[in-house]
Amino acid sequence: NISGALCISQAWPGMARTIYNDHKRFLETYLTPYPGFFFTGDGVYRTSEGYYQLTGRLDDIINISGHRLGTAEVEDVVNHHVAVAESAVIGYPHEIKGEGKMLAFLPLKPLSQSYCTATLAAELRELISKKIAKYAAPDYVQVT
Questions:
Q1: What SS3 state is found at 127?
Q2: Structural domain boundaries in the chain
Q3: Which residues contact 111 (CB under 8 A, 6 or more apart)?
Q4: For the chain, where are the alpha helices, taking DSSP H only?
Q5: Which residues are CB-contacts of 89 (< 8 A; sequence separation ≥ 6)?
Q6: Which range is the signal sequence, renumbered to this chain (predicted)?
Q7: Exposed (0-12), middle (13-18) or buried (19+): which is 87, by Cβ within 10 Å?
Q8: How far does Cα 62 stand from its chain's mean position?
Q9: What is the pTM (predicted TM-score) of this model?
Q10: What are the pLDDT tens digits along the chain (144 aa)?
Q11: Cα separation of 138 and 129, whole Å?
Q12: HSE-up of 20 (CA within 13 Å, CB side)?
């Protein structure tokens, strides 16, 4: 039972080998943080039985009104809604704040396809406000 960064010790077919026109950035991002390993950028939890559970990106932080908020934290709350199959949350540029609240992309569960988008967005804002904080509620919700 341990959490940490997901790192890979051996190369595999199809892995990234550079960033176009910026190989130095590739080395700094993926090979320098944990020498001898490829750093995926993901967090992971390993159970006592040896199973791995990805916990989200370690570098996905949104700065909302001076509060640093991990996208995985918000996605975890959104995924508890009965209609949501999974979610992806991102920040977006804002003229005044620099970074706006967030945008949530949501595929729905098959039996929830007729769910009204406005109702779903309102329920998710309320859920996030209760579980995290009012400032964390997304400005936009996009059902995909």
A1: helix
A2: 2-59, 62-143
A3: none
A4: 23-26, 71-78, 117-131
A5: 62, 71, 74, 75, 78, 102, 103, 104, 105, 138
A6: none
A7: buried
A8: 10
A9: 0.65
A10: 899 999 999 999 989 999 999 999 999 999 999 999 999 988 899 999 999 998 878 877 888 777 888 888 888 899 899 999 888 888 887 776 666 667 778 888 887 767 788 898 999 999 999 999 988 888 888 888
A11: 10
A12: 0
62-143 adopts what CATH topology? Answer: GMP Synthetase; Chain A, domain 3 (3.30.300)
The CA dihedral of 65, 71, 74, 76, to the nearest 10 degrees, is -170
Instruction: Tokens for 84, please give them.
Output: 């949501």
Length of the chain: 144
Backbone Cα Rg of the chain: 18
Q: How far apart are CA 55 and CA 75, in angstroms?
A: 10
